[in-house]
Amino acid sequence: MTRQKIAAGNWKMHKTLTEGQGLAQEIRTMAESELMSNATLMIFPPFIHLQSIAKQMEGSNIIVGAQNMNENEQGAFTGEVSASMLTSIGVKHTLVGHSERRQYYNETNASCGAKIRTSLKHGITPVYCIGETLTEREANTHFEVVKTQLLALEGLSSEELSKCIIAYEPVWAIGTGKTASAEQANEMHIHIRSVLAALSNADCANGISILYGGSVKPDNAKSLFGMSDIDGALIGGAALQSRDFLDIAKSF
Ligand code: PGA
Question: Which of 26, 43, 229, 235 could crosslink 242 through cysteines, CB 3.0-4.6 Å?
Answer without folding.
Answer: 26
